[in-house]
Structures are given as C-alpha cells and as structure tokens.
Amino acid sequence: MFANFGTGIRLRTGSNPFFSIFKSPQNPPPVVINLSQTLTLAMATLSAPDNRRPTCPSCSRPTSFCLCTRLKTPVLENSIAVTVIQHSVEKKHPLNSAKIAKLGLKNVDVICVSDVLSEAHFDLHFSESNSEMGPRDSVENSKKTEHLPPADISFTIEKKGAITSLVNNWDQNQDFNQLLVAIDGVRNGFTVKKTQRGRDQIYMEEFVIEVPPGSLLLFPSENSIGIEDVNFSVKNLIVLDGTWPKATKMYKENPWLKLLPHLKLDIDKLSLYGEVRRQPKAGCLSSIESIVYALKAIGGEDLEGLDCLLDVFESMVVDQRRCKDERLKFESEIRSM
C-alpha cells in the first residue's frame, strides 16, 4: 500500500518516529513528515479520484455494497403513499435510509428542502379553490410549475420559523396557530408553494407540494395522537428525513405542517443506526424504520415486503460497521509501526 509513496521511504525509530521521503535514490536532504501527517496522506491517497470505487447510479453506494440487488422485485406497491420531506444535507449523506424507501416502494415522493437563510414565503391553496390540480402533483428545485390561482393564505417567515407577515382575508391580529387550527385543510387536501430569498436577495421557488386528502404527519409533538386515535382513512404518510435537530428545524420552518394531524409511534427500541450514527434516545428511529413501523401500524400493507426493507437497511448498517472496523484496524497498525 505504501509503495505508492515511492521507493525512498525509510522508517526511523526513537522517541519521535517519523517517515523520511526522498525524491530520488540519491541522498538529497530528506523531507520529514510525522506519523499523523503520513496517515493523513495515506488516507487521502486512498480516497483520491483515481482510486474511487465505482458507484451504483441508483442507490449511490459503491457497487460492491449496492442496495438495489438486495431489494425484492417488483418493488412493494404500497397502498398508503409516502411523502418524504428531506433536508438538503441529508440528501447526500452516504448512510441516508430514505433512499431505501425510494428504491423499495412504488408510491413515494422525496421533496428536498433547505434551511431558511433569511426569509421564506409560503402560498397555501386549498382544494376547493384549486380543484383542477391532480393528486400528488409535486415539483421542486425551481422547476417550471403550472400557474396557480391566488393563494388562500400567504405568509412569510424568517430564520427559525418566526412568522413575520400574514396576507389573506383573515384578521391580521389573529394568532397564526389558531388560524391553522380553524382551517380544515386535511379533509380536502391543499397545495403548498415555497419560495426562498437567497443571499443575493432574489426569491427562488424551492418546491410545490400537493398534500392529498387523508394525509398524516409522522412527528412527535404535544398534539400528536396514537394510531388508535386516528379516525380517518390514511392515504398519505408524511415523514421528515434528517437528524433529529434538522427534523425539528424543518418542522419549525414549515408551519403548514401544523395543518396535519400528527402521529406518534409508541416504540421503545433502539434504532439499527445505533452503531454507526448517533441517536438521541430509544424511539428515535431512522427514516426507513419510521416509515415501515408506521405503515405496519396503520395496516393494509404487505408485511413481508416491509420487513424486506428493514433487512436491506440492516445490511447497509452491517456494511458500514465492517468498513469502520477495517479502517480502525488499519489506523492502529500504522500507529504501531
């Protein structure tokens, strides 16, 4: 492995061991690199573009750890649709579990959202005034969208979700949370459009989401209910995908989520993530675990197919743990030289 550094590598021993690297077999003054620098150089060489392992274009995993081949085909045709609201940072995380839902479920949408940098504007259109839009129409990332009629409710928020202005036919002095409670947005569905002001002060459209009737948000809040208290037919499950702090921030910066009934899962178990990603406490599950357990609790789905998704997730965690152990072993061997 160290042959890549050249033929003039010599290990010196003593109280301050180091590697000397010579530019040629002659004897010019050596360039001294300490052990930690050498280890960093070794790891950088291994991760250089020329040494990158080929990756699967579907799951973005190295081909030797491809998830696609572990999923059953055809994919599970879930009767309850799933909408994943994914934090932009989580989208590129190598251990993101929502990709398993995207690959293994037929009826799933993944909508990427980002933190509010300075100010974001939301337009809400309720189905009574927007009936021409079909179910589950959604676009994101500044893609062209069909013209929407004037919003029923428009509001602007600043960073961390504080409401700064409210534009609609309602009393301007009315509390925003009371306003949302007064709206029956769940029964008939609604559309949400978000535009965000960037650092250049220009507003750009981030997403348009169609929230169909019968939507349920999987999120623990003081108003959350257990599955036994859900008194309507669930057609769409909305899940926030990100670390717990990121999910909490997404919830605060998307006040329209308060329109939805909130579901909490009474599951007191540690996530399979526990060995490779930090979990705050028992019950804080990965996105794919949350989706699977929620769909199981609601009922009407293929239980074997859902368990297969968990098996794929567990295999991904096992792969990561093995790679971590091998890396630690390699680093230990270098330090002991």
In short:
The chain is an alpha/beta fold and 337 residues long. The protein is built from eight helices and 14 strands. Helices cover 26% and strands 23% of the residues.
Description:
With 337 residues, this protein is α/β, with parallel strands linked by helices. It has a six-stranded antiparallel beta sheet. Strands 5-4-13-12-14 form a five-stranded parallel beta sheet. Helix 7 packs antiparallel against helix 8. It is globular, with a radius of gyration of 25 Å. Pfam families: DTW. Its EC number is 2.5.1.25.
Overall 3D geometry?
A: globular
- DSSP E strands, number: 14
Mean pLDDT over the residues: 75
Low-confidence blocks of residues: 1-25, 28-50, 129-146
DSSP helical segment count: 8
- What strand line-up does the widest sheet have? 7-11-10-6-8-9
Sheet-strand content, in percent, reads 15-25%
Q: How large is the radius of gyration?
A: 25 Å
| Structural category | alpha/beta
What topology does this entry show?
Layout: E1 9-12, E2 18-21, E3 31-34, H1 35-46, E4 81-87, H2 88-91, H3 98-104, E5 108-113, E6 119-126, E7 138-140, E8 153-158, E9 163-168, H4 176-182, H5 185-188, E10 190-197, E11 203-211, E12 215-218, E13 236-241, H6 244-252, E14 262-263, H7 287-298, H8 303-335
Parallel strand pairs: 4-5, 4-13, 12-13, 12-14
Antiparallel strand pairs: 1-2, 2-3, 6-8, 6-10, 7-11, 8-9, 10-11
Helix pairs in contact: 7-8
Jot down its keywords.
single chain, 337 residues, alpha/beta, 3 domains, 6-stranded antiparallel β-sheet, 5-stranded parallel β-sheet, 8 helices, 14 strands, 26% helix, 23% strand, globular, disordered N terminus
